[in-house]
Structures are given as structure tokens and as C-alpha cells.
Amino acid sequence: MATRESRSGPGWGRWFPAIGLVVALAGCTNWVKPGATEAMRDRQMAACQAGAFQHAPAVPVVVMTDPGGYRPPQRYCWKDKDERVCRTSPGYYQEPRYGTQDANSGARDAFFEDCMFRAGWTKE
To answer: Which residues of 6-39 are buried (b: 16+ CB within 10 A; e: fewer)?
Structure first.
């Protein structure tokens, strides 16, 4: 079985999907209001989302997701029969990576929450 030895830790680029998942899951909120039905909640959420997008429309901006840079050599080792075999891959330059984010997402989320609270809904 092969093992991998590395002189450097994982780059930030590897962590962005995991961070995004945590942030997305944190947004899973159950809104409740005494005496209200699920359909009433869905209508209110749709109205608040529509208002939020009117107040703060999507504004995609380009952001750097991984600064790139020099990646040092890595040493890979495995056992072949009764002998440990190691190979070292050369270091290389990794170009920066870019993606997009919505510059208004925070304002839109705040508007949506305010709208729901003003309509009498609370987070559970």
C-alpha cells in the first residue's frame, strides 16, 4: 500500500469546497410562526427572497480562490515486497486560481432575515 510523505500541508484551494459546504449548511434554518402552515411559510419566504433580490441583486465578482505559487517537491513511499521504495516528484509552479462570488450575498441575506422577522417569523 502506498503512503505519501509531504513537506508541505494542503493548500487553501483544497479547503474551499469544504468551507463552502459548511457555510451552505449553516444557512439551513427552519422558520416558524405560531399557527402558520408550511404553505404560508413558503409564500412568505418567496416574497422575502424576491424583495431581497430587488434590494440587493446578484453582483458576481472575480476572487482568487488559491494564490498559487511554488509547490515543493513531494516524496512518495511504498513497500515493494520487503523493501521500502521512495520517489520524489519535482517541485512546480501552480498558477493562481480564480472563481466568482456574489458581492451582494451578505446584504441580501440580511434583507431576507429582516423581512422574515418583520412578518412575525422566528428561527428554530
So the answer is: eeeeeeebeeeeeeeeeeeeeeeeebeeeeeeee
| Whole-Å CA distances, 100 to 1, 16, 29, 63, 64 | 39, 12, 25, 6, 8
Q: Whole-structure pTM over 0.90, yes or no? A: no
Query: Grid coordinates representing 36?
Result: 402558520
The model's pLDDT over 34-93, given as tens digits with 9 standing for 90+, comes to 999 999 999 999 999 999 999 999 999 999 999 999 999 999 999 998 899 999 999 999
CB 116 within 8 A of CB 44: yes
8 Å CB contact between 32 and 121: yes
Provide the strand spans (E) within 2-81: 2-6, 31-32, 60-66, 69-71, 74-80
Q: What is the largest CA-CA distance in the chain?
A: 71
Exposed e or buried b per residue across 104-119, where buried means at least 16 C-beta atoms within 10 angstroms of its C-beta? beeebeebbbebbeeb
Q: How far apart are CA 67 and CA 57, in angstroms?
A: 28
